Amino acid sequence: MDVPIGAGLDDILETIRIQWEKDVEKNRVEAVALLQAKQQEEVARMAQTQEEKLAATLRVELHNTSCQVQSLQAETESLRALKRGLENTLHDAKHWHDMELQNLGAVVSRLEAELSEIRAEAEQQQQERAHLLARKGQLQKDVASYHALLDREESG
């Protein structure tokens, strides 16, 4: 069959159905033509017994063609079931993917909130450190002044 590369299941099934219908019509036309040709030959050459043999042969061919049609119908149904299964699998995979994205989004949001808290704490600690350093500097000046006063009292 001439199925284009990259075609989806619907396109493949449609191509198979169209080809199958063409083959059935071709077989029907050929069977009708064959039946008419054989009947005309047998009528001209043989008696009633020969015509009965031809009818039996045609019945067998018709039966074989019917079997082929049923086989193709079964194959078509099998392909449809496979398509449905693949569509369900795809739907499940998309659903799982969406759930995973939601979960990851929640994790990212939580981590962003934690990062904001840590930044706020670091900024607060930095301000406290600057305040303590300023206080330390002031205390060191006070201690130096106190030592200077003590040194003057001892000198004096």
Automatic annotation (TrEMBL):
<feature type="coiled-coil region">
    <location>
        <begin position="32"/>
        <end position="142"/>
    </location>
</feature>
<protein>
    <submittedName>
        <fullName>Phakinin</fullName>
    </submittedName>
</protein>
<feature type="domain" description="IF rod">
    <location>
        <begin position="1"/>
        <end position="156"/>
    </location>
</feature>
<dbReference type="Pfam" id="PF00038">
    <property type="entry name" value="Filament"/>
</dbReference>
<dbReference type="InterPro" id="IPR002957">
    <property type="entry name" value="Keratin_I"/>
</dbReference>
<dbReference type="InterPro" id="IPR039008">
    <property type="entry name" value="IF_rod_dom"/>
</dbReference>
<keyword id="KW-0403">Intermediate filament</keyword>
<keyword id="KW-0175">Coiled coil</keyword>
